[in-house]
Protein 1
Amino acid sequence: MNDEWKPPRLDGTVAVVTGASRGVGRGIALALGGAGATVYVTGRSTRGEGRTEGLPGTVDDTADEVTARGGTGVAVRCDHRSTDDNQALADRIRADHGGLDLLVNNAWAGYERSADVRFDAPYWDQPMWRYELCEGSLRAQYDITRLLTPLMFERPNGLIVGIGFTDGDTYLGQAAYDVFKAANDRLSKAFAADLRKKRVAALSLHPGFVRTERVEAAWEALGDGPAAVVHSPEYVGRAIAHLAADAEVRERSGQILTVGDLADEYGFTDVDGRRLSAFRLEGRMSLATRMDRLNRVVAKATAS
């Protein structure tokens, strides 16, 4: 099946996508670029200052491709755990555009150093630095959102999207991981409550099993099984492009949405023409154990 996606037009839309050097963030930025948006691509990996854990991709690369897709990509080196970096970004957007239409909180450091200690080890065997990576990711989302939200108040239809994943009451298999992934959704709900009298919506979006650079590095070892359910990072971006173009998006504020359900509703497909359903955890293996196995395969592949 061929890809026949016709992106909604987002010309004039100013967006920030955090953690967009690679993975889901990059896919979101590229889809928004294809819709004509101006996208501030943020992250810690740059051509001049190195890449996180040596993984491919930089903010500069993503911004260039956003522009090549028809949008305007703006690369910004930003560690969202730093209030100074976040304030500098807010000041720059205010100076450049006077406002902001879309913020996608995608940055997540919780998988870093995954080869050092088993990702799915019980909490008493977990180092505090792992808790702090997850904690820092949520703090980063809170801080950048509080600083950028006022830039949306004079825009007609602002939108804040938090990228996360939980599966109802299912324990994800690692205490800090589970708590902060659940907190991600709760934070979006809190943003929505505070914004109820503003023209800004806030919601959570759950991707499925995404073929990121991390997964790509382990693809041969993973075998053919995941191919049936995996989707590209741009599938997530297409969902967000349609949400950003939806004049009634405020009706969804405070909700938890899935990419698969939005694909059915808006009628879009992935880059390979498939339309994958919403992802659900199946079987007895926890998500943390799945991530642990994946990260160890990636570490071996990178070392070799």
Protein 2
Amino acid sequence: MNFDFAYMLHLFPILLKYLSTTMEMSVLGMFFALILAILIANIRIFRIPILDPLSQLYISFFRGTPLLVQMFLFFYGLPQLFPSLVGIDAFTAAVIALTLHFTSYMAESIRAAILGIDRSQMEASLSIGMTTPQAMRRIILPQAARIAFPSLVNYFIDMIKSTSLAFTLGVAEIMAQAKLEAASSFKYLEAFLAVAIIYWVVVLIMTRVQIWAEKQLNKAYQR
């Protein structure tokens, strides 16, 4: 069977209509994951009783199990245990799974970045009357953000690609639509290649944004 280039071009405007769903899942997942990751990183750094071992268990579980399994657990499994969750929609379940999955990785990156800041800076902050939370917020975290930024962007890029698993829950995103188009035309190569190109272009754009942002952060740090 010959490759139908014209059909692949025809698919791009159809698939791009669903890019907003993909990006919405990614942005929401990254937003909530970043908040949770900072919280968990601090719990681990300050070794808060009870919460620290729980956070280690959380990280171990979500790093040790596949994202697809986690999506199934939240969408199909939890409603079985908690009837109040029966009405959870596929989009929400996917965002929750993405959030919790990537939080486990981001928390460790943020923790490493914070620990990479010289301890003398915390001591100096405390010596001038700052509380520990103030020192973390004003002095330590801004510097740690610069260190962790490249890895956090990489996690965001990975999250964008991981949204393709959401079609297994019935979320109408790019991959789901490509599967429908391929099934109706039997032109699987054209459909999935079109999807691959769209993801590739999005990642290329994000990579350029990352390079620009890193330069801006370095300039700000040098001032």
